[in-house]
Amino acid sequence: MKLTHEHKQLVQTTTQIIAEHINPYVDEWEKDGIYPAHQVMKKFGEAGLLGIGKPEEYGGLDLDFSYEMVFSEALGDIRANGVSTSIGVQTSMCTPALAKYGSDELRRDYLAPTIAGDLVGCIGVSENSAGSDVAQIRTTARRDGDDYVINGSKMWITNGVQGDWICLLCNTGEGRGHYNKSLIIVPLDTKGVSLSRKLNKMNLWSSDTAELFFDDVRVSARNLIGEEGRGFIYQMEQFQEERMFAVARNIRVLDVIIEETSDYTASRSVFGKSVRDNQVVYHKLAELSSEVEAVRALLYSTAERYLEGEDVTKLASMGKYLIGKLAMKIPTECLQFWGGQGLMNENYISRAYRDLRLTAIGGGANEIMLEVIAKYMGIHPGKG
Ligand SMILES: Cc1cc2nc3c(=O)[nH]c(=O)nc-3n(C[C@H](O)[C@H](O)[C@H](O)COP(=O)(O)OP(=O)(O)OC[C@H]3O[C@@H](n4cnc5c(N)ncnc54)[C@H](O)[C@@H]3O)c2cc1C
What we know:
49% of the residues lie in helices and 15% in strands. It is an alpha+beta fold. The protein folds into three domains: 5-120, Acyl-CoA dehydrogenase/oxidase, N-terminal domain (Butyryl-Coa Dehydrogenase, subunit A, domain 1); 122-229, Butyryl-CoA Dehydrogenase, subunit A, domain 2 (Beta Barrel), CATH 2.40.110; 233-377, Butyryl-CoA Dehydrogenase, subunit A, domain 3 (Up-down Bundle). The longest helix has 37 residues, at 231-267. It is globular and about 80 Å long.
């Protein structure tokens, strides 16, 4: 993939917003357990960065996916994955299906203000009893005249406290698990929506993750995205962008961890020489850096094929699987070289160690990625 002057300019704008409006405040936000999502989204919205690949008529830049990919990678400079995850939900998780299949009215009412940074969106797939096994979700949307009446709950919803609307996956029929679901936009101030609790997590402290309940929530049937019964398929398509986001953002986070570990070990003297001058240390940093580059190459080739209109579910899942593994390996190996300093909250490595642990679980656990890859390879013994 050839990166042009325009790609570099977009990265520069992103990096500048991060340096001025985010990184100086992340320690405070992490301590508070929440960040000002509307304020930060507005900064990105004003720069046009929340709708890079979205249609111009709704405020997007209508650029190809390569620009979204470099934007996601640049978000890895944010020194708290809680903030970048929240932005990723807005750009790559709750809006792709809306942009592609939503009616003009729905896109005008929800996509345009979300691209502008005036609204904050959420994606509602997971439930207490259905995370990996998406087909088993229990939330229902029953048609009643011109409305849907929604009952159920969603678990682990990023932006769930501050969000304005949710792209909700729910059962709209009794049929087979893959053909009875729909994506419906639900404004979170609708009567019957309640927040049971903001979840207390080991990581992503500045991101508000919530459990939401839906009790006879009535929304217009016009809030349906695309066709009824196609929601599972739309969500599986939408997952391709979510997985590429996870790879792109985290390769940059891993670069930063390796760079900072290299600098710290060079500056720390033990037994009369720098820690980095031990072959076991500099060989390890060289090895880890090579592994990040290999995943970056896979991501770029996946993005190229996505641009050509290919179904990249297999490649995106491979990337998500590999980044999940590196997100466990690299912070662990690097933190070791920091000694006691690695465990101090004031050093970014300790936050990165906690934050990156989500990668192999969230948005499809690593075992689920292997299930998907095996199905695409034609070697999965199951039917689906
Ligand atoms: C901080 C955070 C933010 C999140 N944000 C959102 C969000 O915004 N929206 C949303 O919808 N969801 C969100 N999630 C949910 C996330 O996507 C799920 O946690 C994830 O999909 C895993 O589901 P689960 O936790 O129910 O694990 P389970 O389905 O209970 O699985 C537990 C473990 O079992 C293993 N496993 C499962 N299936 C198999 C198999 N077939 N073969 C072998 N092993 C298997 C895996 O190791 C897996 O980790 C978030 C989660 C967290 C922690």
